[in-house]
Amino acid sequence: MNEGRQTMRGAVLYGPGDVRFEERETPRIVEPTDAIIRMAVTCVCGSDLWPYRGVAPIDAPTPMGHEYCGIVEEVGGAVRSVKPGQFVIGSFATSDNTCPNCRYGYQSSCVHREFVNRAQAPVLRVPLADGTLVPTREVPSDDLLPSLITLSDVMGTGWFAAEAADVKPGSTAVVVGDGAVGLLAVLSAKHMGAERIIAMSRHPSRQKLAREFGATDIVTERGDAGVARIKDLTSGVGADSVLECVGTQDAMMQAIRATRPGGSVGCVGVPHGVALDGQALFFAHVRLHGGPAPVRRYLPDLIALVLDGKINPGKVFDLTLPLEQVAEGYRAMDERRAIKVLLRP
Ligand SMILES: [Zn+2]
């Protein structure tokens, strides 16, 4: 192992609106189950905006970033399934892939889970490499990188929204939220065979991408008017499946109220200030499922869909910046000038 004090520069959040690209030590192998990867691309997530906006306060300077893919540089002595030189994609949540939660397919609740949080940097240490990383057969071409990195979080999260909302062939799905996860939830619902996909969005560029990904209807209204509009479109009762991809009280209530009795809500927006009324929930007659997406479970299948050209989730990136301009990436997403920002080290 290197004993030299090599340094690199990566993104660190100091407080609301204050992202710095600053020097820190280059990560090294700590545990024998670790891998070190050289980032091919990384990106800014909608969930990074919660601490960036001060909604989820931080108490100390915090290294940022949890979406990653790249080339393995070094592995610890216990790592068996990935080796230096391979291109890998991993989940934003690490997993051993062997504990009971992992075996049930809920790797993002692995008993050894850690959340990755230093990926907006050129080099990343990934714990539990064997259970977290999935290698591709060969190093992919550069044009596939935007789609491949979405599998690390946003695409897998949209996929989980659709799965949790029980989207089936022929069903009607509503997607609440037109951020990158919401748009990829549309793509996921389409891929799972939903016949009608109603995207709730007020932004023309996002509506356009939603339609490209498979949305059949756009609803611009919100609140009571939004729910009424969904009911108009669904025989007066609401949709079979509603995919909640925001995490606010309004979005959650919108989702529950837009679901028909017997239908399902898939919640993947990280809740901030959401409180549900037990009696309203009881009489809504809906199933709720969600949480941090088990993207590790989906990685092999989603990698195959991308490499076979069946899905192109990388279209959500509408701004690409050099990694050193990461602060501008946060600003662009915060101001909704960009849907999602790709960062190139
Ligand atoms: Zn586990």
What do these coordinates show?
The chain has 345 residues and is of the alpha/beta class. It has twelve helices and 16 strands. The protein has helices at 49-52, 100-103, 129-132, 145-150, 154-164, 180-191, 204-213, 223-233, 249-257, 278-284, 295-307, 326-334, and strands at residues 7-15, 18-25, 35-43, 62-63, 68-75, 87-90, 123-126, 133-135, 172-176, 196-200, 217-219, 239-244, 259-267, 287-290, 317-322, 340-344. The strands form three sheets. Strands 3, 5, 6, 7, 8, 15 and 16 form a seven-stranded mixed sheet that branches. A six-stranded parallel sheet has the order 11-10-9-12-13-14, with helices on both faces. The protein has a three-stranded antiparallel sheet with strand order 2-1-4, covered by helices on one side. Helix 8 runs parallel beside helix 9 (249-257). The longest helix is centred in the C-terminal third of the chain and has 13 residues, at 295-307. The site of zinc ion has 9 residues, from helix 2.
Low-confidence stretches: none
Total number of beta strands: 16
Strand content: 25-35%
Radius of gyration: 20 Å
Structure annotation, total helices:
12
Distance between the termini: 23 Å
Helix content: 25-40%
Bound molecules: zinc ion
Structural class: alpha/beta
Largest sheet: 7 strands, mixed
Query: Shape from CA axes?
Result: globular
Order of helices and strands: EEEHEEEHEHEHHEHEHEHEHEHEHEHE
> Could you report the average pLDDT, rounded to the nearest whole number?
96
